[in-house]
Amino acid sequence: AKHLLAARAREATRFYAVYDRADTEVPAAFPEAFLQLLRSIGCDASLHWLEEGNGHEFFDDAASKVATCIAECLHSELQRCMEDNALRKGAKDRQETFLQALAPGQSPSLTSDLPFQPMWNVREH
Predict the structure, then answer these.
(1) Residue 125: which pLDDT band, with cuts at 50, 70 and 90?
(2) How far apart (Å, rounded) are the C-alpha atoms in residues 43 and 26?
(3) pTM, whole model, 2 decimals?
(4) Across the chain, how many H-helices and E-strands are there?
(5) Beta partners for residue 22, in sequence order
(6) How many degrees, rounded to 5, is the angle at CA 19 between CA 12 and CA 58?
(7) Closest C-alpha among 58, 16, 50, 7 to residue 35
(8) What pLDDT does 114 receive?
(9) What's the CA gap between 69 and 56, in Å, rounded?
């Protein structure tokens, strides 16, 4: 069943569900089965139950749970972006150090004049 969803989609997607057991329109078995299905194909999914919900209506408890899910999702994404930026900055610093060793006192913009491309400038696609 894992071939139904590309590996990259499974890795990059996080599914959050917020449900109230008091909901009379959607039985509790539905979100539980859907969560089980997503996890069976390797998706990162979670189901959050409302403590003070009002059935199918969307009130403060639901808004609070959804806000918590969004904050959790954004926190991990922002952390990943900060780590990527730190790696890029480290590569740029290594490049400048290398160029200064080759040509002390000259501008680090000399990379275009080099007969080779420094390893840290090569990006994988």
Answers:
(1) very low
(2) 23
(3) 0.51
(4) 3, 2
(5) none
(6) 105
(7) 16
(8) 54
(9) 19
* Number of separate domains in the chain: 1
Q: Higher pLDDT residue, 65 or 7?
A: 65
Q: CA-based Rg of the chain, rounded to a whole angstrom?
A: 24
Establish if 73 belongs to a structural domain: yes
CATH at residue 57:
3.40.50.1820
Distance CA 84, CA 78 (A): 10
* Residue 84 placed within a domain: yes
Three-point CA angle 108, 112, 116, nearest 5°? 105
Contact yes or no for 81/49 (Cβ under 8 A): no
pLDDT exceeds 80 at position 31: yes
Q: Is residue 114 part of a domain?
A: no
Polymer length of the chain:
125
Higher pLDDT, 1 or 41: 41
Q: Residue 62's domain spans which residues?
A: 2-103
Burial label, 19 (beta-carbon count in 10 A; 0-12, 13-18, 19+): buried
3-state class (DSSP) for residue 81:
helix
Residue 120: inside a domain, yes or no? Answer: no
Q: Which residues contact 1 (CB under 8 A, 6 or more apart)?
A: 40, 41
